[in-house]
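Review box. Two proteins, two foldings.
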Amino acid sequence: MKPVVERLAGQYGGRFLLGEVDADRSRDLMTRYNVRYLPTLVPVRDSAELPNSRLIGYPGEAKLKAWIDARLAKG
């Protein structure tokens, strides 16, 4: 999933910032955002998670792009 997300981030030309967290080294952050499964994408705006918006697992590129588009449309 990582290469696809990185490529999509480039295609969106800065419309979203992609951050990566090392789950083993950032247990406090994993706890803060209640991440229990990997991969998990947690969309955050103004330091708060967008409600009902996280993505768990890799749905494939087309669904991932649709998920990103839906998050960007909300803001």
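Next protein.
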Amino acid sequence: MIARARLIGVVGFLIAGATGLISSTQTWLLVSLSDGAAEPLAVAGASAVVLLAPLSLTALALGAALSIVGRILRPVFGVIGAVLGIALAILTAPIAIQAPVSAVSAEVAAVTGIRGESAIAELVAGITATTWPAITLVAAVLMAAAGIWVLATARLWPEGGRRYQSERAERRRSGGPLDAIDSWDDLSRGGDPTT
């Protein structure tokens, strides 16, 4: 399990980030207005939660960078990922649970020209949530869990570069044949690879 701990963290961030990014373009809420409009107003995830796309892109970047980052930055990335997931869950949960008028007020104001929370609340006859807020809430929980996982297991991950460095050092100590890369490195440092 520890051998795959890095992979679990990376995949967790990538899935959560991709889900959030896709969700930001989907319809989250359908708003029925009391002005007699035949079609309900569709509100996308990016309108309902303005920070959805930036937080999701940050999670994708964290996942990609986590695959190559060193030992010192791993816990930092874990903390950042956990904070991002918690923030996204806090922003998404009210919409997934009760679909408040505040989540649609910007979109309703843009369509109708009416401003003010109380005026918009009077204009809104009903709000129906799609499954996307719930999906995004699950992705936010996954993002926070991936951050906590990285924070808990990062010190146990194997170092990728040392495996190759120890093989070279062993060949040098044993006097064994060096490959072309080792010879070129010796030449670059001013040594004579022929001796």
